[in-house]
Amino acid sequence: MGEASGQDSQADEAAAQEAERDAVLVERLREGDTKALDQLFRRHRNAAYGIAFRLVGSRDDALDVVQESFIHVMRGIQAFRGQSSFRTWLYRIVTHAALDYRRWRSHRQAESLDALGALEPAAAGPSQQTPEEEAAERDLRKAIDEALANISEKNRAALVLYALEGMSYKDVADVLDISIGTVMSRIFNARQRLRELLASEIG
């Protein structure tokens, strides 16, 4: 018990140190130091890309979303009042930018949803499956993709941040600017919707 408590304390301390480093860079950026933006980008680009990729489902589109998000950071840094951490503010920008991008692109068909990690990638090497098993797997993947595509954007965003990015309910609430109760409700509804859609497709 004491060991777990100590690990939590160390994690909290590390998070506080990271937030403090961000705060220093934010202040430098406010003063016109563009190198500070480069450092913030290097510190957060992987996480920002991960969120964008899982929400838009395309590598190139995710890169566009991240680029637009950091442009937004540069333009809006003077308005950032520090009421939340820079990390939370950035994730909020990325999430909204990704959802806006999806809406703008909603007329396109056959959108890939592999980024959500619905299925594990096949093992390397020759397939040991029969043609019937391979056909069944293709049908299952298609059913999962279609089910994920039919989850509302709000519920999907909450599920991505919580289940795939490993964020806490509180962090998800801060990013989406909603209550923790609403976060829990959206995640629950997303999972329920997935089960219902998959049951109707597969069953």
Instruction: Assign the structural class, choosing from mainly alpha, mainly beta, alpha/beta, alpha+beta, or little secondary structure.
Output: mainly alpha
Strand count: 0
What is the general shape?
globular
Strand content: under 5%
If you consult CATH, what is the topology of the largest domain? Rna Polymerase Sigma Factor, Chain: A
Order of helices and strands: HHHHHHHH
Total domain units: 2
Rg, Å, rounded: 20 Å
Task: Write down the CATH class of the largest domain.
Answer: Mainly Alpha
Distance between the termini: 45 Å
Q: Please give the count of helices.
A: 8
Largest sheet: none
Uncertain segments: 107-125
Q: What's the mean pLDDT score?
A: 80
The appropriate CATH architecture of the largest domain is Orthogonal Bundle
Under CATH, the homologous superfamily of the largest domain reads RNA polymerase sigma factor, region 2, helix turn helix motif
Helix content: over 70%
Characterization of the model:
- With 203 residues, this protein is mainly α.
- The protein has 8 helices and no strands.
- α2 packs antiparallel against α3, α2 packs across α4 (86-104) and α6 packs antiparallel against α7 (169-176).
- The radius of gyration is 20 Å and the shape is globular.
- The chain starts with a helix and ends with a helix.
